[in-house]
């Protein structure tokens, strides 16, 4: 295998010192413009690539952030990553992206890999299986900043960026009630996840305030977030003797699956069954009927998360850093499905 070109190779070819080449590559003012041009020209010709990790060991910073999300094929997570990268790049940082695939074990392995790679900070949204947080505490104990976003916990002393899920779920349930719906079902993810639990509690609070009972068979807790699971949920609800007149779905992906099931069953939406989602994915505008949902500014949440962790990384008073929890309120988007 061909050995990578090093600074020593550049220095030897130009008959200058390694230190001069290093300073030229860093655009140091100590080096003449002519020398810089010569070094950069040769570096390009010889396909020299800097060892960012080695440079980080010298500078005490790798200028790399690690991002861990459950999956990258949902719009909320991909938008959040874009927001993180947008801010990180402006501050000279690169972003390493990993997906846990909703696996706790994979999440633990990813976090250990990132910590051992000497990233300057880790931004993470927990998997649906995550119940323990020792793997994160160990990273914090090593002095590596960690920021939690969207899927968080109370056990860790870190900065956090979250959606006001209780508020959003209550607001959209109130909307369905104002539309005259009295038998509203909830189709949501595993309530061991704080985000799922908060959305269910928001739904319950709106129903309680309106004096509307929640039928136990109208609460379906899914173990994943897929179209097929949502479709099965609608079939289950509609085949019961106690049919709902509306369904609030934890996320747009579930609401779109529910809408597809309604078409298969011949259910008129919203006349027979109103539907509402959460997230405002792009697809929610283009399905027919278009989907009522709660809009989450996911790109902006990613930007805010990046700003907070960079603020911590760049803080000179590390031991006294004031961790922040930013709570973002979603906005109701009323469309045809309700």
Automatic annotation (TrEMBL):
Signal peptide: none
Pfam families, A to Z: LacI (PF00356), Peripla_BP_3 (PF13377)
Domain HTH lacI-type: 5-59
Molecular-function GO term, any one: transcription cis-regulatory region binding
CDD domains in the cross-refs: HTH_LacI, PBP1_LacI_sugar_binding-like
Keyword Transcription found: yes
Keywords annotated in UniProt: DNA-binding, Transcription, Transcription regulation
Protein name according to UniProt: LacI family transcriptional regulator
